[in-house]
Amino acid sequence: MASWEDYVRKVVPYTPGEQPENLNVVKLNTNENPYPPSPKVREALRELSDDKLRRYPDPAAASLTDAIARQYHVSPGQVFVGVGSDDVLAMSFLTFFNSDKPILFPDISYSFYEVWADLFRIPYRKQKLNDAFEIVTEDYCQENGGIVFPNPNAPTGVLMGKDRIERILESSKGSVVIVDEAYIDFAPEGSSVLPLLPKYDNLLVVQTFSKSRSLAGMRIGYAIGSEKLIGYLSDCKYSFNSYTLSQAALLAGEAAVRDAAYYEECSEKVMKTREKTKKVLSGMGFAFADSQANFLFVTHEKVPARQLFQDLRKAGIVVRYFDQPRIDDYLRITIGTEEQMDVLFDFLRKYL
Amino acid sequence: MASWEDYVRKVVPYTPGEQPENLNVVKLNTNENPYPPSPKVREALRELSDDKLRRYPDPAAASLTDAIARQYHVSPGQVFVGVGSDDVLAMSFLTFFNSDKPILFPDISYSFYEVWADLFRIPYRKQKLNDAFEIVTEDYCQENGGIVFPNPNAPTGVLMGKDRIERILESSKGSVVIVDEAYIDFAPEGSSVLPLLPKYDNLLVVQTFSKSRSLAGMRIGYAIGSEKLIGYLSDCKYSFNSYTLSQAALLAGEAAVRDAAYYEECSEKVMKTREKTKKVLSGMGFAFADSQANFLFVTHEKVPARQLFQDLRKAGIVVRYFDQPRIDDYLRITIGTEEQMDVLFDFLRKYL
Q1: Residues A251 and A291 in one domain
Q2: Going along chain B, which residue ranges are E strands?
Q3: 20 to 30 A Cα–Cα from B305, which one of A105, B272, B297, B327?
Q4: Which residues lie closer than 8 Å to B90 by C-beta, 6 or more apart?
């Protein structure tokens, strides 16, 4: 080992889901939206002039933060944007989790939380989900250096009620609580904790353009919180990279936010397909928690998940398998179009 | 102060140059390229299909790293890409500067270095440039936790010879040395330290698409180093955000790299205008170091810089003023088109 390697930060990185080049596979592995973005997005991208390409974007990303603020009835000072919600979450870990006390998150959850904690040397404790894959509220009502969980949770899809989240907020006023709502638009209306913001200045709600807004390729995420919270987050962001969102992302993002009706319609379609998928897979011997996200986390009474994962793959159907304790007999299946799900059902009917 | 604020990382953020909305100002303040990007970039962006927008980009950004590797005759494993060179540098500070010994950089330099060091709690020592605004080689040949400097330096434009950089590399094999070549394409051919890479596996060369490639709006930067160095950097990047470059950035970046001839021509034009600007400003009583970048760092024998900065602004000409010790009587003026510089010259002729 060369001597300069002594000073290197060594980490075990997150492994993202694969992005196969082949567009013919049925891609149900990274929870993308099967429907195209709003036609208004393509239209907006036509404004990507040479002058826009040549010049630095607005570092405050005002056009996009203003549009988000209007959509969610908050002030622009309550909105933070980043390069996908991963960027927003990474920056939030760096900014808010600077205590010697452990931060808390579920043992079965977004696996990036542990990676960020390791990267930034943040102490953490993983709290066990119960056997129904639910977050145990009391486990989060204890001393902590911060709290983070997705709602609905990933990869389980389980939604936690707002009243239970409020219990956690009530007992954790001394640290920042991050609710990662990447999948909230596929849950019943009124599931978001955004309405709790006026009561808790330590609550940060993170959402994304990658799922319900069909813009995973453009890398846009955002957080909404109190102006004080967002101020600290912005300071750290400006100390890391002033210009994170490209002119293209600003144009696409703003157009997407403004076309809320289009996206609600797409989300409705995904939810309808999800409910149908639940029925079909139940009938085939699969079990799963009652997902309120755009994926199902399924296990089969007879076929081991690892085996099924590989056989699906051979048939050109890509889903996600996590080789981790407690969930190594489960597959996460993204909800695609009706046609894509029919391909899956046809395969399974023959296979099982 | 709310109790959760105890755990917040508090920083004094970097202040980026302003991005005025008004396109009629003569914008000579953030070192953008005055010429449009290659027509091939616009062409490539037409491939930004709904499917590309909807799906996650390739996390390895292989199409872009491959194109960069080919252009610079290195292996793809020697290339790292990020959201502008600021992202690349921030990630490099986080990855490589983990020693108790101070990192070294010039006192007059890119002001973000100090901000990153503060953000990541990295000890640092600023080494004084000499009165000719040159880096004193010996100051960097001492024990350190890492070294970083721009070449040409910013905001001075002063170029350091490769032989002197090699002296530093020879004496600092125990830490990573970052040469920030954001402006190298405006320096004489053969100024880059890229040819030294095979000799020093601790040398990281950082470049950008924001200056010579006219793509500041798309946010693309890159680093080239040994495969070992890039491996560590990628691990940290994958622990922060897997998908940093959007599908749009990948398309634009690849097309830009491939059209090297177009960009060489633009850089030639900028360099020609720079040399002419040196002559004109000399004749008006300005003094400056012999910049090899796309800007001049000037001081006037009679008019205080702060005053001139404000008066230029009133006339719709925006340049950059740094209110810092040793350079508070200087202005950094980006080299624009011949026409833009003529507007500046006309103003100064009447003003002085």
Answers
A1: no
A2: 26-27, 79-82, 103-106, 124-127, 147-150, 177-180, 203-208, 221-224, 286-288, 295-300, 317-318, 320-321, 331-334
A3: B272
A4: A240, A241, B116, B119
Task: Please give the structure tokens belonging to residue A89.
Answer: 């979450």
Counted domains in chain B: 2
Q: State the Cα–Cα distance between residues A316 and A319, nearest whole angstrom.
A: 10
Contact predicate B31/B216, CB 8 Å: no
| Residue in chain A nearest B96 by alpha carbon | A8
Contact B124, B102 (CB under 8 A): yes
Question: How would you classify the pairing of strands B103-106 and B124-127?
Answer: parallel
CA B223/CA B74 separation, integer angstroms: 12
Residue that the structure tokens 């004749």 belong to: B283
A310 DSSP assignment: H
pTM of the complete model: 0.97
User: Which structural domain range is residue B245 located in?
Assistant: 39-259
Q: Of how many residues is chain B composed?
A: 352
pLDDT single digits (tens) B205-233: 999 999 999 999 999 999 999 999 999 99
Token representation of residue A105: 């998150």
Q: Which residues of B touch A53 (CB under 8 A)?
A: 36-37, 41, 214-218, 252
Alpha-carbon torsion (A194, A196, A200, A203), positive or negative: negative
Using the structure block, give the residue that is written with the tokens 């040398």: B203
Cross-chain residue pair B216–A54, CB shorter than 8 Å: yes
* Interface touch A10/B249, C-beta < 8 Å: no
pLDDT in tens, A194-246: 999 999 999 999 999 999 999 999 999 999 999 999 999 999 999 999 999 99
DSSP state at residue B188: P
What integer is the mean pLDDT of A25-46?
Answer: 96
Residues B91 and B200 in one domain: yes
Nearest to A246 among B10, B146, B249 (CB): B249
ipTM of the complex: 0.96
Q: Are residues B286 and B214 in the same domain?
A: no
Collapsing DSSP to helix, strand or coil, A219 comes out as coil
> Where do runs of H (alpha helix) occur along B284-336?
305-314
